[in-house]
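Tip: read the tokens left to right.
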């Protein structure tokens, strides 16, 4: 009877896994169920893209906004050695990093130990060039280490979750992910043009449309991306052909090609990167993109960061966040003072506070930090 009851519980967990194919929010209560089943402090599903570093999607039953906030997640993942290690079977951090290496790691000393977290058990759910998804359990220092029982449970759940992620990708045919990344690139002031296996333009984001509107550097003719009249397009053609060949042959060593197109005169200069899409055959659907072309305008005045977003992410005051947005666009302190109608001394005072909150020592470090910040995505 007890065995039958356990089967019903597992059936409920598996149901939550596959409900996430159409509604990803169902995976949040799934994390709660997994945490309760394994006696863990919390459970989390982390999804990252090797082709888009520093961009993470985290699902967890941990409700602490500080721990699960974007800034903390980015900091933790930047020093997390587990992301780069294949874990086809459930394995503890102590076994993965033996001889006390885990306890000496920056991940443990700086981020886990202050939260009283001692034990980690993780397993790959998906590991491919397209995506890395990892399921992790955590226990406090006063809890016992994970045993074979929890490892067996994780080994039971992980394949179902991996299958659900693949089915979700096939269900959406990549459209939702494509729209997400197109919008993300637009927020970064980067145009993105997606090419199909024949080299035809299948979609582009609004930023790319704006950059191509005057057709002074790049244009779309006959459904294909090409250089404008008067600009040598041979290098672009070769780069696109190389990317399409890498896609057809699944050549993972081909990272792509970077070009500068245009001139320093009237037409302007575009930085262009052409990258092949080399997907995992298990993730591919019938309408898979073959390559993507990223476009950036060298004459752009810089990124426009939302002061409200900066204030929320980094704990800045309204005045500090307004100054931060001006500095991020490359303004001098005098120019920022004029734009905000404040004195230069006021700007310097707020800048010193920005140093503290952004862990910087000099103004160039603040500029670099803000221009790398994923606040640009909001």
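Filled-in amino acids:
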């Amino acid at each position: 009877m007890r065995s039958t009851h356990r089967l019903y519980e597992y059936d409920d967990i598996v149901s939550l896994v596959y409900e996430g194919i159409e509604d990803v929010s169902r995976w949040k209560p799934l994390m709660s169920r997994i945490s309760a089943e394994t006696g863990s402090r919390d459970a989390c599903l982390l999804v990252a893209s090797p082709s888009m570093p520093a961009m993470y999607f985290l699902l967890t039953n941990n409700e602490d906004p500080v721990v699960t906030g974007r800034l903390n997640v980015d900091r933790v993942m930047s020093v997390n050695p587990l992301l780069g290690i294949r874990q086809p079977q459930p394995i503890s951090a102590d076994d993965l990093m033996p001889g006390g290496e885990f306890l000496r790691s920056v991940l443990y000393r700086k981020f886990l130990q202050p939260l009283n977290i001692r034990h980690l058990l993780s397993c790959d759910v998906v590991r491919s060039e397209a995506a890395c998804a990892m399921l992790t359990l955590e226990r406090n220092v006063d809890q016992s280490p994970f045993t074979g029982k929890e490892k067996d449970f994780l080994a039971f759940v992980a394949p179902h979750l991996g299958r659900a992620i693949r089915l979700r990708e096939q269900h959406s045919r990549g459209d939702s992910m494509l729209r997400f990344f197109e919008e993300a690139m637009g927020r970064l002031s980067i145009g993105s043009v997606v090419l199909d296996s024949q080299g035809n333009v299948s979609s582009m984001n609004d930023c790319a449309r704006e950059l191509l509107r005057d057709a002074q550097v790049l244009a779309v003719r006959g459904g294909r991306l090409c250089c404008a009249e008067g600009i040598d397009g041979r290098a672009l053609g070769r780069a696109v052909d190389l990317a399409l060949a890498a896609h057809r042959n699944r050549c993972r060593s081909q990272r792509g090609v970077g070009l500068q197109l245009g001139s320093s005169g009237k037409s302007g200069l575009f930085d262009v990167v052409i990258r092949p899409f080399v997907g995992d055959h298990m993730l591919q659907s019938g309408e898979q993109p073959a390559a993507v072309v990223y476009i950036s305008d060298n004459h752009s005045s810089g990124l426009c960061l939302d002061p409200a977003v900066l204030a929320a992410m980094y704990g800045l005051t309204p005045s500090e966040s307004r100054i931060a947005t001006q500095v991020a666009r490359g303004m001098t302190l005098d120019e920022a003072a004029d734009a905000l109608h404040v004195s230069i001394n006021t700007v310097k005072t707020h800048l010193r506070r920005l140093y503290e909150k952004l862990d910087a020592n000099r103004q160039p470090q603040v500029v670099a930090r803000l221009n790398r910040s994923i606040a640009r995505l909001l």
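The CA atoms of residues 169 and 283 lie 7 Å apart. The radius of gyration is 24 Å.
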